[in-house]
Specification:
Blueprint: E1 2-7, H1 16-27, E2 32-37, E3 40-43, H2 47-52, E4 60-66, H3 70-82
Helix pairs in contact: 1-3
């Protein structure tokens, strides 16, 4: 398992569009991926799970990836967050 903490930098945080982008990328990989915020851990391949985090701008999330292609998955998700979901 590998993990990385990220901070949401986009203006509206993890609303529907970024959550959909996140789950779309997660679904392309074989590895399991989870998001953790304030002790709540959700399956990041589920848009409902991601939306349940109610993560706004400035929220800190831990992305956990487990599986054979975990490194490229983590890298792609971290880049998505760091690029502010291409919103700002």
């Amino acid at each position: 398992m590998i993990q990385k903490e990220v901070t949401l930098l986009n203006r509206l945080g993890l609303h529907v569009r970024p959550a959909a982008q996140f789950t779309k990328i997660a679904g392309r990989y074989k590895s399991d991926v989870f998001l953790v915020r304030d002790g709540m851990r959700v399956n990041a391949k589920s848009i409902m799970g991601v939306m349940m985090l109610a993560a706004g701008k400035g929220s800190k999330l831990i992305i956990e990836c487990i599986g054979e292609d975990e490194a490229p998955l983590l890298n792609e998700l971290v880049q998505l967050v760091e690029n502010k979901f291409h919103e700002d």
